[in-house]
Each structure stands twice: as structure tokens, then as C-alpha cells.
Amino acid sequence: MKIFATYNIKGGVGKTATAVNIGYLAAREGYRVLLWDLDPQGAASFLFRIKPRVKGGGKALIRGRRALDDAIKGTDFDGLDLLPADFTYRHLDLVLDAAKQPAKRLASLLAPLRAEYDVVVLDCPPSISLLSESVLHAADLLLVPLIPTTLSVRTLDQLTDFVGGFNGHRPEILAFFSMLDRRKKLHAEILRDLPAQRSDVATAAIPAMSLIEQMSVQRAPVTAFAPRTAAARHYRDLWQEARERAQLPAPRA
Amino acid sequence: MAPGQREFVLADAAGAGSDVLQALAAAGEDNLGWANGTAVHSRRCTWLDTFDWRLYRAGLTLEQVISGGHADLVLTGRDGAVVAAQRLQAGFMPGWPRRAAELPAGPLQAALEPITGLRALAPVVRATSKVAELQALNSDAKTIARLAVDRVAVTFPARSTLPARLTLVPVRGYQAQADKVGRAIGGLPGVVARRDSVLEAALAAAGCRPGEVPGKAAGIQLAPSMPAARALAQILTALLDAMEANVPGTLRDIDTEFLHDLRIAVRWTRSALKLCGDALPGGLASQYGPEFRWLGDVTTPTRDLDVFLLGYPAMAASLIGAEPAELIPFRDHLARSRAAAYRRLVTGLRSARFARLGTSWRAALADVRPARRPAVAQLADAKISAAHRKALRAGSRITPASPSESLHDLRKRCKELRYLVEMFGSLHDPAQRWQAVRELKALQDCLGEFQDAEVQRTEIRAFAAQMMAERTAPAETLLAMGEIAASLADAQASARAKFDGRFADFAGPASQRRMAALARTAAA
């Protein structure tokens, strides 16, 4: 089982859109996929038409009083399940703080799902918190959407330094440009130069496209409702790169 | 089977041939909707089993599904859980019948081979299936369950159209809502819960009963007071059924067991005529005895060569001085000889003489007008006792100096005794029967080892002479064959050494008491 996480301290940079699309693409390829919507806003749950509600709330899940797999819901897509968001997730930091080894709690909660899923995608809320630290410890590959600005590159460096300080398991980082506007000179320059200079920046990038915004109207991944479009192709390219970087084995026959 | 899955059959009234979606519109809650799911897809399904239903009897179902350019072989248990599955490589679309050993190596082959053994897998049902999917949606337009509507047209063994079959699979986490949908569907007029599999429904439509092998004479239920002639006519008719049931498989050369089972039925028939023919109306045994002897003779050469070829891998592996590869010309010679013998067998089984034998024998058996006496129990008692005495007498005459023929003769007496015990088996308590034949079986095994080694040794000499005459025998092959003949001589000597002990057990007072008790139960 490989754990992918979409993470950025900032909101509105395309984390959820990326999580639902790579989750869908992985399932399409035959992987058994679980997407955990950790964001109390529940955008991923909304996109899959699943109520953002977990019996007992986040506390029951984190404390292990309620088995994770009781809360899992099937999406409308074969092979793709969702652990929905819950508004109580906004207090997850407090719950984690009370748990033993809070930074490693998410990894230990996910471990029993190893036999059932090949891929787990964690869609994180935008923050620096105990929850995000726990996500960083659990993940094998961090997918970090970046708006192409100098400032966001600095943020990536900070994240790399932070993860570099972990003892034991460290996730690999794969940043990618999101909400890209090729008409902007700065965007074009950064996109041209940075992937060549840094191995932790993907060559695939996700442009700002109205079709991607349409996901919230269609309530489905763009790769599902408009698979032949440029938007879908960009997500496929990103998934391809992420899968190779995570060294994900081929799905079972 | 998925958790919470429910299965139904859609009878005509509820929309076979009409729009299932329309029929289901009333099913479910107010807030429930239905949508068409994936497009209709077609599948060609073939269910496979051996002629004697080994998979069915082991609680397994093997299905080949061809869909979307792929062929999958799926082995499932009675609960529908997949035991093993294999996607067949493009270019390897097996023709059936085929032995499990000929399938690609893997978990499926490993699961099948110990069960099917020498028997080939052949289609028992073929069907085409068109599956449409409907999605049950809740008020958020979220799919909560999927309903597969499967319309199956059976093409083999008889053409039929099965009522549409519905499978409702809840989406994970929506079990409670899906249950409501399931209950609503189950309440629709004409919808009934499904009890049987497609395989069972198709077989039922064709009038076939899975697990049923024609002509098991040992399974015939006899009442002790039944007139002996009628009981014998029933047994012999069942044996004729078995012969005829195994002829098509023998003629198509599906697997070696068809011929083997055909020969068993012939041997039993010959023994019944020889040992109990006096209980049949006058002339029947003497008229048909020679005909079944002819039939036995027609089948012997092919079976002997089958036995050689089946034992060939073990034979080659047992070589110590020679290399297995040196034996290959011998295998080729066996294969050529078998092909020639098989052609003669086919000629015999397609002959007018064989056709006449079957027809007239069946008519003669149907015509048997039995006298009231003797009852079959008395006949069984008398014949088992007599055969037992004969076997004891033949065995007690054997000394270390006796020729092989006397052991062969004893083997034949023992076989006759065993046939009688099995043939009249329903008259005895199964546990008592097992006790009674325990020592007989052990003795038969020993005599079988002795005799088989003797026959094979003689045959290997004959094969060597033939191969020399045909100039197909390199020196190293003849040496390897000599090594096999030597190990057969060893096996024969070891069987001979065991004989005295085995016969002493068979002739001992405990064994005699058990056999006598068996005879008494039949007569009681």
C-alpha cells in the first residue's frame, strides 16, 4: 500500500482537485484506492456526493473506538472508496494531541487497511498543525501544489527542511505547479526553469481551467466526466509522474 | 459474493423482455431514483466439469468467461467465493475438452489438478449473457446500489432462455438504504428470490442433473426379496448404460478414463453372466457371453498402451543408469502403437456388430420375465459364498514353486468375488461390507502389483523386438528399456514376497467370519 497526500499550507491551490483526480485515475488503472477527506470543509466528499459525516466524528476514528473501515463509503466509481470528511475534523489537532505518538497516529490507523487497498490518498486541510505533521509522517509521497511564484518556492524549501528533520520514515516530495497561467511571464519562466533545476518539482503541471472548476457542478473528477480534455490529460501526466516517483507496483490482475 | 448482495429472478410478468427500469420504477423509496449504468455488455460463458462431475462433487464451479476480448477462467466454491482465477493469455484460448495439466501453470491449475486427475474438463453448459446495469440513486443522486440485469440464453446442452436474473449489490457504506431497495424489489409481482446458479438453472432446463453419472451398477438399490432375474436385469441394464455413456468420450478420445470405465462395465457384465447367468432365462448368458468377450478384446490393446503411457513419466524418472531422454524413442513407439490400436478400437465401436449388441442386449434385458424364485438375496448369498470358496481353494494351492499363472488365476477369482460383493452391495450394510473386503482388497493389491509387473515385463520385451525389427531402437534406448524391465522384475519379486502374508490374512478365521456374515446379511 502506498500513501499519497496532497498538502499545502495554503488553501485554494488545487489540493482536493488533485486528490480526487489521482484517486480516480489510480482506481481506473485497477488499483484499490481509498481517499480520506481530512478537510472539515468536505470538498472531496461533496464532489463524490457523499455526506460529510462520520459516526462518532473524528474523535472516534483517531481514538480507534470506531474502526476506520466502518466509516468508509463506496464512491460511484469501481475501486474507489472514500473516508468522508466530518465537521468535527476541525478539532483533530486536539484529539491527536491527547493520543500517544500523535505524529505517527495516522500511519498506525491506516496500517490495518494494507490488505484491502493498494493506494491511499490523503486530502489535507490547509494548515500547519499536528494533523498535517501526522499526514507527513504517514505519507510515502507528498504531492504539493504550488502557485508559480517565488514565495511558494520558498514555502517548498521550508517544507523540505521540515521533512528532512524527521527521524526514520520520510516522505518523498513531489511539488507541481497548479493554477498555472501560461500567459503570465513569471509563471512561464518558473515552469520552464524550476523542474529542470529541482528533482522534487514535477514536469507535469495543472493549468487554471474552467473545466476543472466545473467539477463542483458535475460533482465528479474531471478525468471521469471529461476524460478526453486537456485538463484530464494534465492530471494523467501528473499521476503518471507521481506513480513512478512512488514506485507503485503494477495493479493486481 | 459481495456483502449484502441479493439475488432475484424476474419472472415473465415482471418484465422479461420489457423495460426492467420501468418494472422497477415502483420499487424503493420516494426519494429513490434509477439510472442506467454501464452499457450492456455481452459475455460468453462456458461451465466446465469432468464427465463424472468431480468439480461439482467437490463443491466447485469452473467457468470460462469471454468478454471484451478477454478470457478468464474462474473457479468458485459453493458460497460463490473465488478459489482461483486466471486470465488466459491472448493466443491461448483453450479448446475443450482439455486436462487441467494442459492449462497454464498457476494457482488455478494447482487447485484443479488434484481434483480432476486424469479426467478432462469439458463443457457442461454454454450460454451467452447480456448484462445491463442499473444504478439505484439516493436524493443526492449518489449511487447506493448497483443492479445487474442478466439475460441468459443457454446454447448447450439444450437451447433455452432463462428468466432474467437480477443481482443487487450495495455500494459500501449504503447497506441499510440498499436493503430497503432489495426488499422493495423482492415485493414486486413476479420477482422471486433466486436460489439456483445459472449453471444449475441451465442444467435443470436441459433436464440434466449435476453429479449424476449413468450406469453405476454398484449404486443400484435392490430389495432382498426381489426376484434374482429381475435384479440381474436391472444391474446389467445399468452396466449397458455405463458402456453406452462412455462410448462417445472414447470415440472422441477425450480422456483415458472413458475407455477404462467402458472396460469396467464390460468386465462386470462378463462376470455377472459367468457367475450368475444361470439365474437368467435360458440361453441369454451363453448367447451374449462371447459377444462381451469380443468387446473386451477390442478394447484391451488401447487400454494396455494407455497404462504404459500414463506410467511413462514415472518410468522415465525412475531410471538410475540411463538418462530419461534415452527412453524417448520408446515413448514414441508407444504413442504410435497406441494410435494404431485406437484406430482398431474405433472401428470396433463403430461396427454394426457393436451397434447390434447394444440394441439386442437392451431388448433382451427388458424382456426378462423373472420367476419368483430365487430371490436376489439368496442368489447373492450363494454366489458370494461360492466365489469365496473358489478364491480360498485357488490360493491355498499356491506354493513358492507355483508358476505366475496360478497367481493370475487367483487374481481373477478375487476379482469375481469383489464384483459380486459390489454388485449386490445394496443388500449389505456398508460398514460390514467394508470390513468384509478389507483383507480381500489388500490381497488384490498385491496380486495386481505382481501381475501388472509380469505383463509389462513381457510387453517391454515384445516392444523391444518390434522396435528392433522396425529399426527404431537405438542401443541406449534398449538398455534403458532393459533397466525398466529389471525394476519391474524387482517389483514383481517384492509383490510375490508379500503374497503369503496377504493370503494368510484373507484366509484367516477373522476374515472368513466377516465374509460369511456378509453373505448371511444378504440372505436375511
Q: Calculate Rg of chain A over CA atoms.
A: 17 Å
Average pLDDT taken over every residue of chain A: 90
Order of helices and strands of chain A: EHEHHHEEHHEHEHEHEHHHH
Shape of chain B: globular
How is the secondary structure organized here?
The complex is a heterodimer of chains A (253) and B (524).
Chain A: E1 2-6, H1 15-28, E2 33-37, H2 43-47, H3 57-62, H4 68-71, E3 73-74, E4 80-83, H5 92-98, H6 105-110, E5 119-123, H7 130-138, E6 141-146, H8 150-164, E7 172-180, H9 185-197, E8 201-207, H10 210-213, H11 215-218, H12 222-225, H13 230-245
Parallel strand pairs in A: 1-5, 1-6, 2-4, 2-5, 6-7, 7-8
Antiparallel strand pairs in A: 3-4
Chain B: E1 6-10, H1 20-24, E2 33-36, E3 41-49, H2 54-57, E4 60-67, E5 70-77, E6 82-88, E7 98-99, H3 107-116, E8 120-137, E9 143-156, E10 160-161, E11 164-170, H4 175-186, E12 191-193, H5 198-205, H6 228-251, H7 256-276, H8 284-317, H9 328-349, H10 352-366, H11 376-396, H12 404-423, H13 430-470, H14 475-507, H15 509-523
Antiparallel strand pairs in B: 1-11, 1-12, 2-8, 3-4, 3-8, 4-5, 5-6, 7-8, 8-9, 9-10, 9-11
Please characterize this protein's 3D structure.
Chain A has 253 residues and is of the alpha/beta class. Chain A has a single domain (2-245), classed as 3-Layer(aba) Sandwich (Rossmann fold). Chain A has helices at 15-28, 43-47, 57-62, 68-71, 92-98, 105-110, 130-138, 150-164, 185-197, 210-213, 215-218, 222-225, 230-245, and strands at residues 2-6, 33-37, 73-74, 80-83, 119-123, 141-146, 172-180, 201-207. Chain A is globular and about 50 Å long. With 524 residues, chain B is an alpha+beta fold. Chain B contains 15 helices and twelve strands. Chain A binds chain B through residues 48-51, 71-76, 81, 219, 253, and chain B through 87, 135, 140-143, 171-174.
